[in-house]
Amino acid sequence: ISLTPQDIVSGESEEESNGVNLMEFSDEILLHILSYVPCTDLVLNVRRTCRKLATLCLDKSLTHTVLLQKDYKVNKDKVKQLMRDIGKEIYQLNMAGCYWLPSSTIDHVTRCKNLVKLNLSGCHVTSLRLSKMLSTLQHLRSLAIDVNPGFDASQLSSECKATLSRVSELKQTLYTPSYGVVPCCTSLEKLLLYFEILDRSREGFMLSGQLMVGESNVPHYQNLRIFYARLAPGYVNQEVVRLYLAVLSDRTPENLHAFLISAPGSFAETGATKNLLDSMARNVRLDALQLPKAWINGSGLLQHLKFNNPFYFSFSRCTLSGGHLIQRVINGGKDLKSLTSLNLSGCVHCLAPESLFRKAEDDIDSSILESLVVSCCNLRHLNLSAAHHHSSESIGNHLCQLLSRLKHLLSLALPVCSITDVAANTEKPPTASNLVPQTFGRKVRIGIQTYPRNLGDQANQKIECSVFWALMGSLRFLETLEIIGSSFSSAMPRNEPAIRNSLPPCVRAQSVGDFEVAAISQLTYLQSLTLAQLPNILTGSGLINIGLQCQHLRTLSLANLGMMGKVVYMSALMDMLKHCKCLRDLRLEQPYFCAGAQFFQALSHCSSLQRLCIVSRSGTLQSDAVMSFMANCLEVIMCHMFMGESLTVCKNLQQSIVRSFQADRPALNVVIFPLLHEDLTEVIRDVPMRHLDEITLFKSRVAEEPPNLWW
């Protein structure tokens, strides 16, 4: 919500004419309404309308916590004025991802003398500026910063180090091999580390992960309760994290209750890490656990680790079998009512009794999934993607039927092949999507026959028998849903050239299409939807129902739907977008996608849209249509297009957008570049981490991290 004085005045006039005056509401009701207005609007605009609002807008409940992390309209001058007006009243300040603000903006944070929590992740902060700022924040207990090339801990003043010595929570994103400020934080209880170090410098030199290790820069972990490390691909990240872990292996903190390391690819176990894990098994009881797959596969570690009241487990990409999962993790169903988040993404044998002689495509053992559902009945986040979870023909034991018992689920990720009805792969009964002509290249009129309206008896009967329709009907409060093909891989992986060929979908997934997509429209409170590699999309008619029924949808990601040689769902997508008034993020990945005038005209109906990303091998775009779209959609601050156009066309369009709109949109980030160009990785490295991590790069995000890991 964004309000101006004119909005308030016009609102009062209209209400007075109807006999109702907004100012007659109680202070409690008005404070609740104002809590939805960005703090910058409250302080700089709304409070100037009348005396009553001037008082209410400065209420402690509204100024205690200031969130600027997605206030894309805020600029340096607004921050300066905000800090000048209410700086002493701010106790928590979140500026995460404000990449567009100049580093000098940080100087104004010194006015916030009472700050307890400060998040500057994604902001430009030098060592000297950090030192000056922290020297004045004596009450600070929680800090999040980036450590960029050129960071020098020796430039931190004694007053700054005194503040850091009192910090108990630290989130540090590393773009260069460094300990950052960790050695100065002698009272750490929560440490979150994000390793984003590239193996090569911009000049092409190989980087080293070796650090200067001495008494003065050894981390202090004696009070540590939570240790979390997330690694981007690359050997340098692995080298640096080992140095952080070396101190832990010498002496494991006795209060440690959450130990999480997220590492892609192969991250081999060493003698030091083995000693650390052995020490943890002897001395601590955990509530949250995530380890690299090489540390779990083939070891008896899980048998020896002790758990207290676990709330998060991630065994992503591990070869853990269902038998081990039941016996060693959930203890036959005991003490797992506390578990709220479980990530089994890429854990291909987790629903099978053993993995030694099993093929990844074999049917699951429904009794294992049933034990999991019964034991973890309070799950809110569950990720079963990137695996073949095929149900058998046993009645009542389909994966969808068992998952429907998890009534508290808020987010769910499933492979496409897991949602198909078993009968659909044997008898092939007619479905609603089969009613559409399947002639290649023939235009099909859509918009008349959608789900669930105007279906014949045959289609209604199919709905009643569909396990996926029943699952969607039982999870009415689901907010995030991902349906991703088990063999899907994005054409834009991190730090690598674009993938030119994709693997074919699973055989069991061949029947999943428009009919199943229509079932998703039952999720009234759905906020985020990801659909990838659904081969039987013929018209995309189910998307229209989602647009009509899921009015809270904010994030939509579609990838490789239907046949690869043609975007068969384009017409339905355009109809869908006309109804998505709350949509903020849209990501499309589809070969031969034509981003033309009709598409952008439909997209212009999404009045709340802020970020757009299109990835299309051999895709085309119309520059005039893009410019018109940007002019009409005033909220758009990110436009990423990786298409099949020439470098010249891409550069010209990118420059035109920046030149035309940057002045009015300080946060504007535009990247338009040929998808298969050899310099793609160099372009990607300049994308702000907020956009890169949240939308540009495709990945499953359900249960990716423990809930409420950071504020």
From TrEMBL:
For this record, an example GO cellular component is: SCF ubiquitin ligase complex
Q: Which InterPro entries match?
A: F-box-like_dom_sf (IPR036047), F-box_dom (IPR001810), FBXL18_F-box (IPR047948), FBXL18_LRR (IPR045627), LRR_dom_sf (IPR032675)
Q: Sorted alphabetically, which CDD domains does this protein's record hold?
A: F-box_FBXL18 (cd22128)
For biological process, the GO terms are: SCF-dependent proteasomal ubiquitin-dependent protein catabolic process
Q: Which domain of life is it from?
A: Eukaryota
**Start and end residues of each F-box domain:** 19-66
The name this protein carries in UniProt is FXL18 protein
